[in-house]
Amino acid sequence: MGVLGALTVLAVVVAWYSLRWVRMRRGGGVSVALRWRPDEARSSWHLGLGRYEGEQFVWFRVWSLRTGPDRVFERESMEIADRRDPSGTEAYAVPEGSIVLRCESATQEAIEIAMGPGALTGFLSWLESAPPGRRLPRAS
Q1: How far is it, in rounded angstroms, from Cα 71 to Cα 52?
Q2: Is residue 103 within 8 Å of residue 74, measured between CB atoms?
Q3: pLDDT (mean) for 64-84
Q4: I need a surface site. Which of 19, 58, 93, 101 has the fewest CB within 10 A?
């Protein structure tokens, strides 16, 4: 493959990511960073877009070729176990002004999700708007 072929492939990949990102943003959503298996030493942050779809919070990784969500979380099973500010170099890997929430679930692995103040307010409102009879998802 020559230089022209490599540039064509690069242009197609850039166009794919751009169209995917625009399509995700049009559907509504917030910029968030996600880290699964936060207790493992090699766990790292991944930037993406989160969106509320009824009883689910779906997350799309920025640099992914998937057309659907990369992670899906059920509101009914999510519970906030901890809330903290980013520490050390984490501040460079998450959206500016982020708060980090550790979310646990009986049905899914623990995650940490980092989002700015506006997105955090929306996320907490979504969690708390569950049907009556369900306990509040916040840690004290």
Answers
A1: 12
A2: no
A3: 86
A4: 19
